Amino acid sequence: MGRMRPLSGAAVVVLLGALTAAVQRDTATSSSFQMRVVTTGLDAPWEVTWGPDDRLWVTERRGRRVVRVDPAGGMRTTAVEIPEVHQSIGQDGLLGLALHPALLSGTGNDYVYLALTYDDAPGPALRRRMAIRRYTYDAASSRLTSPIELLTGLPANDDHFGGRLAIGPDGRLYLSIGDLGANFGRNRCMPNQAQRLPSQAELDNRDWSAYQGKILRLALDGSIPPDNPVVGGVRSHVFSYGHRNPLGLAFDREGRLYESEHGPSSDDEVNLIEAGRNYGWPLVAGYRDGRAYVYENWAASTPTPCGSLPPGNAVPPSVPTQPETAWSDPAFAPPLRTFFTVDQPNPRLGGATMAPGGIDVYTSEAIPGWSRSVLALSLIRGIVYRLPLAADGRSVLEPVEELDTANRYRDIAVSPDGRTIFLATDVEGASIDAAGGRRPLANPGSILAFTYSGRTAN
């Protein structure tokens, strides 16, 4: 662990070439990044965050624990193990982590917030739910203690969990929840509720079932903030809605919230999230452009019920369909950018989409030309996309830079000096190259560091 090694191999040559080209175009100079493996053997790392103790805080989705990693030498210490976390498939387990902004500042706010899945059924039947839990960090023992449940009973299923946590400059806690895979694949007969808004009666009964396909905004005690938007006549935890599977949340210095989410075999998105806005899913994928995407409402099949339909992707006449342009909403917010938007449906495209992981907003001046960029990760393609932002942060400038290695990038953290980018990698799953071919994972279950090592004249 922590062993420095020079970049080598075809995939790494591609990485260096892309990095060099990126800085050349922005600064008329060349640059280099040095890669090292910080640590290996992590059990499905999901979140990586730089802490005020100069350690990387990592959640292990499958390992059900939080570990702190020395970014220099790779030594790991376990902050907490949570055996009651339910983990049985590729998306549930211990997920998002957010550190209180005043952690280790001497103010008594040594809090760490976690998103996790658990089994809410009293008997042998499984009933997945998501919860937000707060721990207190004891610096003397380097352990997380005194767990408090802030919000429990949040919807969960076996697909499209979301689960990313972030604390904004406004002191509020944000959580992404996906659409739980509704109307898709093995869940195609489950109605998609990303457009459904909670009623006051549901809130009074602490029924959070309408929180599917939403980004939530909570006070740090789990309550509904009084300045949350009123959506559909009700003030709830809901901050925005119409999301498919939002896996990236990050704030910039001005308090703008950026998000990345999976599209349906096309139209992966990077969004600017604003209060009360509707991001369209499942009625719109990406821009409301009427191109390839058509909403197929399998759950509403009639007269043949969905459960009686034959397997396969062919859409029978009993399934209602609706083009994007048949729907409109003044609250609709189009994405800042989409990936793999196509004109015609392509059944093979699902293996070549971006499949977004986490994101971060790069604000440092340490890497020339990178300041004010969104760094968006791809799982299936093993790419860090750099999306330069306009001065107002409300649009993406071109070109989009790509950094490519043979991994699945799950999450990202940037060192305080802005010179090193840390990437958490998945332990399993598909990774494809530029030609669409599958490739073995180069560094599964690892934290990788890419350090900018200066620039030289052309």
Please describe what this structure looks like.
The chain has 458 residues and is mainly beta. It has a single domain, classed as Neuraminidase (6 Propeller). The chain contains two helices and 28 strands. The protein has helices spanning 10-27, 200-204; strands at residues 30-39, 45-50, 56-60, 65-69, 76-81, 94-99, 111-119, 128-138, 143-155, 162-167, 173-177, 214-218, 230-231, 234-235, 238-241, 246-251, 257-261, 268-273, 294-296, 321-323, 337-339, 356-362, 373-378, 383-388, 401-404, 409-414, 420-425, 447-456. The strands form eight sheets. It has a four-stranded antiparallel beta sheet. The chain is globular. Mean pLDDT is 90; it is low at 1-30 and 347-351.
